[in-house]
Amino acid sequence: MRHQYEEASNIIPHVLIFFLPIQGPINSMLQLAELFCLAGLKITFLNTIHNQQRLRRCTDVQSRFEKYDELFQFVTIHDELPEEHPRSIEQFGDIIWSVQTVAEPFIREVLLSRHITCVIPDALCYYVVDIGNDMGVQVILFDTISPSCLWVYLCLPKLIQAQQLPFKDDNLDALVTHIPAMKGLLRWRDLPHFCLVDYKTDPSFLAALTEIERIPQAHGIILNTFEDLNGPFLSNIRSYSPKTYGIGPIHLQLKNKLVGQQITSLLSSNSLWQEDQSSIKWLDAQPVGSVIYVCFGSLIVILWVLRPNILKGSEMDYKFMKDIMEDSKENGYIVSWALQKKILGHQAIGGFLTHSGWNSTVESIVEGKPMICWSHNVDKRVNSRLVEKFWQIGLDMKDNCDRCTIERMIKNLMGIKRDEFKKSIDNL
Fold first, then answer.
1. Would you say residue 168 lies in a domain?
2. How many CB atoms lie within 10 A of CB 235?
3. More reliable by pLDDT, 245 or 25
4. What is the SS3 assignment for 356?
5. What is the dihedral of CA 413, 415, 417, 420, to 10 degrees?
6. Do 283 and 156 share a structural domain?
7. pLDDT tens digits for 110-142?
């Protein structure tokens, strides 16, 4: 095997990293790449031309990785999408399949032309497992969704075999059975959105099934978590993939390494959008624990981050922003994008109204901020349930977000249950 030859020859391990070309995986994969560079590994990082241009425009990514000299190199491919394509979550399928058509032959070429020890792709790029097996190169998957949701994925065949899928009942509050370590925890409304449709034709469901078929064939799987947070789910995942590595929180591991080596990129960003730093000055003027950091809406004093293109059409974006900023200027602050880890770590932040993405959930836990979870799809629905019922560090607002519910939850988060949530977070 190639890796055995390398060990015998004392050659520096060379890792090819390839990710889904969207914000969450980009952030996690670049953090992982920098951790590897700090450990002395050589990294080739495969990016799309479109996202590489955005990273260079919005971040210090180029200069940040130049300090690792020959240990790090970006290589790029075209995503085969027209420049005017929005590349938003609504077109997620377009992005995945378009990139795959270019990535498959390119990765084969890289493995032939460079001395690659190992490939680490996003777990949804499961076709890389087949390439690695064909060419005798180890593939370790990096799944950027939560371990709890990955465990749900791995149990999907059991739900099909038990005839619980496709879902036919109208009672979304019925408990899901046949998922070990989650009995009495998950309701049907807490499962990924594609579990509530006809799985035989839904592309997302079929992709999840293909992903879990490849997991046992990979050399291992990396997850952004730690045992105290996801221990029961990691134990079950290891029955499918014994070499399951919980190496998180990745952003905190990287921060500690950079501090230890006195490297000055602690506040660096991997954002595809330009980050507005003005919110920090505004937060400095707010009382401790008085602000709720919001992704989707506001009812009390807030810091509200509205990502560009969150609404379809630039005119809608402009009018919506103008109206909201006028209405909230006395008791809130709105920016188009911000450095989330720095905001969550600010003493003025008392809570986080979040979409429950896994990176956001982990970052909020690390900074000790309780959450209100307004989840929509994929792992976010599972995550929000665990935040309220498993870890007891926040509230799950899914499928019920009327004015009274939001008001009640904010009062609980910022006042009535604040100490209770903080204690639970501190115990993780």
1. yes
2. 14
3. 245
4. coil
5. 110
6. no
7. 999 989 999 999 998 999 999 999 999 999 999
Cα–Cα distance measured from residue 374 to residue 368, given in angstroms and rounded to the nearest whole number: 19
Structure tokens at 73: 């190199």
Q: Are 394 and 387 in contact (CB under 8 A)?
A: yes
Reading the block at residue 329, the tokens are 């200027």
Instruction: Identify the domain containing residue 238 by its residue range.
Output: 2-260
Report the amino acid identity of residue 397.
M
Taking CA atoms, 326 is separated from 291, 316, 331, in Å, by 19, 15, 11
CATH number of the domain residue 241 falls in: 3.40.50.2000
Q: What is the pLDDT of residues 58-83, one digit of tens each?
A: 888 888 898 898 899 999 999 878 88
Residue 300 confidence (pLDDT) = 36
State whether 64 and 203 are in the same domain. Answer: yes
Q: Is 240 exposed, middle or buried (0-12, 13-18, 19+ CB in 10 A)?
A: middle
Q: Is residue 250 within 8 Å of residue 35, measured between CB atoms?
A: yes
Indicate the residue type of 289: G
pTM metric for this prediction? 0.87
Q: Is the pLDDT of residue 314 over 60?
A: no
User: Does 272 fall in a domain?
Assistant: no
> How far is the CA of 374 from the CAs of 148, 350, 365, 396, in angstroms?
18, 17, 16, 7
